[in-house]
UniProtKB/TrEMBL annotation:
Gene3D superfamilies: Ribonuclease Inhibitor. Residues 229-240 have a biased composition (Acidic residues). The lineage of its organism: Eukaryota, Fungi, Dikarya, Ascomycota, Pezizomycotina. It comes from the Eukaryota. This is Leucine-rich repeat domain-containing protein. Pfam families: LRR_15.
């Protein structure tokens, strides 16, 4: 005689939570009615929406079964594919009480309702996600794709901050900790950003800053962020800094493919306990004035006692000319990091780490530019002509490690170290198999050998590599 084993629901849920595959969780709900009722919420822990059809289906599901709204912990639209809703489908959607009710709750006027409908009908992910955000009270992570003029999303964020409808009965985003913002060009208006001018940057800045005003937030990742330029009188940077200074609980900022004309001062100044700041520069934005390392030094100085990770201009894009004219600032010295007393990891370009813009030797030795708390140092953009100087500077750092940098464990040097291939040299007579592709120049390896010996003697790990291929020198 066999007896069935009845496990408590709490134990079953723990087992279900260890199933990472969405397919496995999906199969669970078909085992029995009991399993369906118990595990259906697991399917809604992480929700990924890729188009308006996914969004509408999800909206219907959570409005028909309100308990599911409390199950959603992560909402991800990073794979969103925007397409216009066919007229026949849109007419059907407009007859949907689910969609009409959600728009009515979020809209304040007939004009605003028309705006919502216009953005929804064009398949904009920012409008669809704005419609469902008031319903998701337990969100922890949010990944958004937004386009030029995210008006609906801006409305929702501002009303959540102000406690206005539809957030009057329950405050919004009480548990939201991590947000990723991905800007995409308007597919219907390729020149939308150019036509929008300053107004576009004011709109995107307002959206970004709204997340800094949520008390639960800890981490923000965003791309294509552009600081307002100094001639944009309608957006007062100093006023923004004063109104939000020291109010944000965000500890990690990661800005990719961005342009900080003011060193992202408005964002950095709002953080009381900034621990990680990562910035990748790009001159591709129309409003970019070029990379200004000194502006970032000014902004980050206020975080010198809390900052633990600093990435500056990691594989950034620099053009010879920007909207401000000849681009001559990206190789200027950032300034000494010696006073950043909590800094553990640094990733920075060589011309920004050492003041070598007009000379071969730095005005301030590397030994005096690094904090004593340093554990990992990545140096990018080293030119061949500077390799000897950098090795000398790093050897001094390694020799002083016991007294000055006792936590230092890892050094990484990246530069244009690759041998030119036969194609690049114009030599077509050399067989492909015998060309010197994917090798580091012998003189670079020789220069690094002395540094290798020093590192090996104290147990330091050293990497020297070229970004164009994966091979490196691992000591």
């Amino acid at each position: 005689m066999t007896r069935s084993l009845h496990l408590p629901n709490d134990v079953l849920l723990l087992v279900g939570e260890h199933l990472e595959s969405h397919t496995d969780r999906w199969n669970l709900i078909f085992v029995s009615r009991h399993f369906h009722d118990l595990f259906v919420s697991l399917l809604y822990r992480v929700v990924r929406l890729n188009n308006w059809r996914d969004a509408y289906s999800f909206l219907c599901a959570i409005t028909k079964r309100p308990p599911l709204t409390r199950a959603v912990r992560e909402l991800d639209l990073s794979g969103w594919q925007r397409d216009l809703i066919p007229q026949e489908d849109w007419q059907s959607l407009q007859r949907s009480t689910t969609l009409k009710d959600c728009v009515e709750v979020s809209s304040y006027s007939p004009d605003e309702t028309a705006q919502w409908n216009e953005h929804l009908a064009t398949g904009r992910g920012d409008a669809w996600i704005a419609l469902m955000l008031p319903l998701l009270t337990q969100l922890r992570q949010l990944h958004i794709v937004y386009y030029t003029h995210p008006i609906c999303l801006n409305h929702i964020m501002q009303r959540a901050i102000n406690g206005e409808r539809p957030f009057q009965s329950q405050p919004g985003f009480q548990h939201l900790r991590k947000v990723s913002l991905h800007h995409q060009e308007d597919v219907d208006h390729s020149a939308a950003q150019e036509d929008a001018g300053n107004d576009y940057h004011q709109t995107s800045s307002a959206l970004l800053l709204s997340f800094f005003r949520l008390s639960s937030m800890r981490s923000l990742v965003a791309n294509s962020v552009v600081d307002p330029t100094s001639d944009e009188s309608d957006f007062d940077v100093e006023e923004t800094e004063q109104s939000h200074s020291g109010l944000s609980s965000i500890t990690e900022i990661d800005l990719r493919h961005s342009s900080g004309n003011h060193g992202m001062e408005a964002l950095i100044s709002s953080c009381t306990d900034l621990k990680s700041f990562k910035y990748q520069h790009s001159d591709s934005h129309l409003a970019s004035h070029g990379y200004l390392p000194s502006a970032f030094y000014h902004s980050l100085t206020r975080s010198k006692r809390t900052l633990q990770t600093l990435w500056l201009d990691h594989y950034g894009d620099h053009y010879p000319f920007t909207s401000a004219g000849l681009n001559q600032t990206h190789d200027e010295w950032f300034g000494s990091l010696a006073d950043f007393s909590a800094l553990r990891e640094i990733r920075v370009r060589l011309p920004n780490l050492l003041d070598i813009r007009y000379q071969n030797e730095p005005t301030t030795p590397l030994l005096n530019c690094l904090p004593g708390s340093l554990e990992t140092l990545y140096i990018e953009g080293c030119e061949e002509r500077h390799m000897g100087m950098l090795v000398s500077q790093l050897r001094t750092v390694v020799k002083n490690r016991p007294s000055r940098f006792p936590r230092l464990r890892y050094l990484d040097v990246e530069g244009a170290f690759q041998n030119a291939s036969g194609d690049e040299l114009g030599d077509t007579s050399v067989p492909v198999s015998s060309r010197t592709d994917h090798t580091i120049k012998a003189k670079i390896m020789q220069a690094a050998e002395l540094l290798h010996e020093d590192c090996a003697s104290v147990g330091l790990e050293l990497h020297v590599h070229d970004r164009a291929f994966s091979k490196d020198l691992r000591y």
